User: What shape does this take?
Amino acid sequence: MAEIIPLTPGGASDPSEPFKESACKLHPQTMCPAFGALRVLARLEGAQPAMITDTGCLYGLTFVTHFYAARKSIVAPALGTAELSSGKVQEAATAAIAEAASEPNVSVIPVISLCVAETAGLAEELLPSSIDGKPVVLVRVPAYAIHSHPEAKDIALAAVLRRFVDRERAHEPGALVLVGEVFPADPLIIDGVLRKMGGRVLTTLPGRHVDELRLAGCGAAVAALHPFYRETVGVLRERGVGVVAGAPIGADGSAAWLRAVGTALELDEAVVEQVAAEEEAAARGFLASQPLKGATIMVSGYEGNEMLYARLLVEGGAHVPYVSTSIGQSMLTAADEAWLKAHGTEAVVYRKAIEDDKAAMARWRFDLVIGTTTLAAYAKELGIPSVYYTNILSVRPLFLAGGMIASLSFVRELMNRRPLYERMVAFFADADPGGTP
Ligand code: SF4
Assistant: This one.
């Protein structure tokens, strides 16, 4: 069980928001948020991003984009102090767009406008809407307006969706659009369950092809599996697509989500009820053993889907007193936050800073920390088992009974690593100042 340690003097002051006051919230403390937009757009087949910014941003963003496996270069103008001070941003943008259009096999040019171009006054109305018949789509993601990379993904996806979504074709009965960068097996598992109810998955966004964006407008409903796709959901709602909030997470969440999808898709109520009950029974069968009982776990990340994992851990028997995320609070986060707070979570921190996470570590004794790289390193120094949220947890199935069992089994395995970490701390504590054990 968690041991609550009083906050140290000088710590956060408002007891209802215990971690909010202590840290600066102006700076996102992550890689440049625009990375999220680049990730979505660079993966789109035929898209050649043109990034309007200076060379400093270009260097950093090219690095992280390639690090996360984009297989294309980014075209950008040479914008330095001289060009900026002489007011050449517009000309430079137009030249970069022309260069992007001349690349082989290009069918669309997303123009990514960042802090520098936005501050210098890039004018949307002076940009071409297409070049050589290839659509040009402006995506504005300066970090002073878009504070996290998940939210930049949303802005980018909404921009291309707005341009390409099919507004003419009829909605396809029973067809559900999924929104969220999820583990590849998850949409297949969801599709399998939906088909038992008489529905199906139409497509999963962000997709790899413009045709998937067109198709999304034909869905009867859209499910935002991750809670930060507000603009994207808004574009589809304008098109008349019904919206299902939340995700099929854990025993509680999966059954409720399947019923909500059944209603949105107007499926047979009795069949939906039977499938939802089967899913719930399968999940509860696994949860009966309470695989994480007695553990206190911290969840912190910048992916935007941290509350989903926290819910799973709680259903697995863990105490999760603290959850933090880089995204902002919204209607799409409300249900998960309310569920967590009704199940023992004392603090849900949006727009988190590392200072919030460290304050939480001073307040509770955690058996496992699932966090950012920086936080995981800090926890390891203290001998607490910890893993990097993005690379370790986000690469596993998560949804419905099957995803839940896979994720919780993995976390239970992590819990057994405590002796290893304690040995590591003891080893370094015993080391002499010269570094020889
Ligand atoms: S200046 Fe803005 S766009 Fe450039 S790297 Fe920094 S946050 Fe990103």
About this structure: The first strand starts at residue 50 and ends at 52. Residues 1-16 have pLDDT under 50 and may be disordered.
